[in-house]
Write a structure and sequence with these properties.
Largest sheet: 6 strands, mixed
Shape: globular
Helix content: 25-40%
CATH superfamily: Glutaredoxin
Number of domains: 1
Structural class: alpha/beta
Order of helices and strands: EHEHHEEHEE
CATH topology: Glutaredoxin
Distance between the termini: 22 Å
CATH class: Alpha Beta
Number of strands: 6
């Protein structure tokens, strides 16, 4: 499974998709991360500089980027521990090109998270197969509004 880590600048909440004026780029990126986790099987973790500075200090790569470029170098995106992007949020096309396609996709991802529809057109509900998006060290519950999506 591909691991994607995003080191965000200090934001008001874990995703930056909050408040009265949401940055469309952050909303798009959040949706792209949900897509990666739910349909591509990626293990996605985000760290916010304002609430989790220890994660930034604990990564030699991120520390080096910050020492060279300061906070303007954020966000920093690592793929399997290797530096991939700095200073901007990658597009879905960039993410798809950088990550292998669906090698660890969750079971049933091609049918939606509640399983394939039967001949009557109803979905089986055998549990949520969508992984959660992890914000920092704690994964979010499937019912949280900030999860990777999924039907549960």
């Amino acid at each position: 499974m591909t691991k994607l880590e995003v080191f965000d600048p200090a934001m008001c909440c874990s995703t930056g998709v909050c408040g009265p004026q949401v940055d469309p780029a952050l909303a798009r990126f959040e949706a792209d991360l949900r897509w990666l986790a739910t349909t591509q099987g990626a293990d996605v973790t985000r760290y916010n500089l304002g609430s989790e500075p220890g994660a930034f200090a604990g990564s030699d790569t991120v520390r080096a980027v910050l020492q060279a470029g300061g906070e303007d170098a954020l966000p920093v995106v690592l793929v399997d521990g290797k530096l991939k992007w700095t200073g901007h949020y990658p597009t879905r096309d960039e993410l798809a090109a950088a990550l292998p396609t669906t090698p660890g996709a969750p079971a049933g991802a091609d049918h939606g998270c509640c399983g394939p529809a039967d001949s009557a057109g109803t979905s089986s509900d055998d549990g949520c197969c969508a992984p959660t998006l992890q914000i920092g060290s704690a994964p979010l519950a499937a019912s949280s509004s900030a999860t990777t999506g999924g039907c549960c």
